[in-house]
Design goal:
This protein is α+β, with helices and mostly antiparallel strands. The chain contains 14 helices and 21 strands. The chain is about 30% helix and about 25% strand. Helix 9 packs antiparallel against helix 10. The longest helix has 18 residues. It is globular and about 75 Å long.
Length: about 450
């Protein structure tokens, strides 16, 4: 570790992230001290995606996941509310739940039999008589996070000073609705959770989805050809006048305006899926307007909700990049569909997600190799001294677009969304509390 990163200050970090000119210091992807600061000031403060409501539909349904590196249980309590609390017994710290998901009335620690409810409250323990007069059960419950939902997506936050979720999302909700508000039925996750691990820094993944259109036609060229089964690859990348970058509060969206790019490539051999979306477009236009319902949805789109929740609307994959240190992540991915989709369309969408973005998917393998090598290269001391260029169309975004909310730059072949992501990253890491983090970016 470099001497400068053993005691990090705001000045050091601001020197590492040159947003005005578009240069990043490689140490932000490598150093342990920076990573520990991310866990403390970013992941412990942010609203983080933890579940879709369809995964915990009934009282007693639960799943386990991570907020930063804090393992948590997400449970539907008996009163119908969703609770999120630490998965670590308040007696000796043992993990109390080892299952990925399931149904439970309580969670009982293997060590001494301490039992906790689906709200995290301590219910009792083995040989409880010995504790009479020596314990206040109410003070020994599992630490709960704040929980809020946005149209089926459940987020949690451990910081009591953080603003409400809708404020955290800001103008970005306009873009989220393109995926979440297509029909009255809402959305659901199908097919379970797919897990994958990469030896890479989590930020490479998040920034890629927030706006790296530059890699798509190059990195994924062979994958696209494989998907067409020998047929000519359609021109799925939008031309400059039909594409844009949008960001708000560090959340990023890049997309086209032709309404066909991703759908045309992903489902070119599945006409019943294309027919479903063609039939749905009129309803989407009524709900979301012409721009979102007909021109944006279906185009080449990738997106990230800051800091580590990403998705591809046309391919219907949603995923979290769970950090496991500065040089390792666990990817958890799901397939999202409209609840009122016909079963045969749901099956086709799920199959396409596995074909493209899964451990054996033709796109996932391409990305994973790049992210791992981009991280591993930084083990060299001299290599870490050379900054990385993020300067394409730097400074071109504007807030006064008449049709699109947030900060907008055209075309989407740019680094402006990545720079907005690192601006928000810097906001969090240099702030002593939420009072020092700008409300709107």
């Amino acid at each position: 570790m470099d001497a400068r990163t053993t005691t990090l200050g705001a000045l050091d970090l601001r020197e590492m992230v040159d947003l005005k000119n578009g240069w990043l210091d490689r140490r932000i992807f490598w150093d342990d001290a920076i990573y520990q600061l991310e866990l403390e000031r970013l992941f412990a403060r942010s609203w983080l995606f933890v579940a879709h409501e369809s995964q915990i539909a009934r009282p007693g349904d639960f799943l386990t996941t991570y907020m930063g590196q804090d393992n948590v249980i997400v449970a539907r309590h008996t009163d119908g509310s969703v609770r999120v609390f630490l998965n670590s017994c308040t007696h000796r710290g043992n993990r109390i739940c080892f299952a990925d998901r399931g149904q439970a009335r309580r969670f009982t620690c293997n060590y001494h039999g301490w039992a906790f409810g689906t709200d995290g409250a301590l219910l009792g323990m083995h040989e409880e008589d010995h504790y009479q007069g020596w314990i206040d059960k109410a003070a020994c419950g599992l630490h709960n996070a704040r929980v809020e939902s946005y149209k089926g997506l459940v987020f949690a936050c451990f910081d009591p000073q953080a603003p409400r979720l809708e404020t955290f999302l800001g103008d970005y909700r306009w873009y989220l609705d393109i995926v979440l508000d297509q029909t009255d039925s809402g959305t659901e996750f199908i097919g379970g959770c797919v897990k994958n691990e990469f030896d890479c820094n989590w930020k490479f993944c998040a920034e890629n989805f927030t706006g790296d259109s530059l890699h798509a036609s190059w990195t994924h060229d062979s994958g696209a050809k494989a998907m067409t089964a020998g047929h000519p690859v359609p021109d799925y990348m939008p031309v400059d006048p039909l594409s844009f970058h949008a960001n708000a509060n560090g959340h990023g969206w890049e997309g086209g305006l032709d309404g066909i790019g991703t759908l045309g490539l992903t489902y070119m051999n599945k006409p019943h899926v294309l027919a479903y979306y063609a039939q749905k477009r009129d309803e989407m236009v009524r709900r979301l307007g012409e721009l979102r319902g007909r021109q944006i949805y279906g185009s080449v789109i990738s997106a990230t909700v800051f800091p580590n929740f990403s998705y591809l609307p046309g391919i219907a994959t949603m995923r979290t990049w769970l950090p496991k240190g500065p040089r390792k992540i666990e990817l958890r991915a799901w397939t999202i569909v409209n609840q009122d989709m016909p079963d045969e369309v749901k099956d086709a969408v799920l199959h396409s997600c596995m074909e493209t973005f899964s451990p054996s998917g033709v796109m996932e393998m391409d990305d994973g190799e790049n992210w791992e090598n981009a991280t591993r290269a930084n083990e060299g001391v001299v290599t870490r001294r050379q900054p990385l260029h993020y300067g394409l169309r730097v400074g071109t975004e504007q807030r006064d677009d008449p049709d699109l909310p947030g900060n907008i730059a055209r075309p989407m072949y740019a680094d402006v969304n990545q720079l907005a992501f690192y601006q928000r990253w810097l906001d969090f890491l240099t702030a002593d509390s939420w009072a020092d983090i700008p409300a709107v970016r």
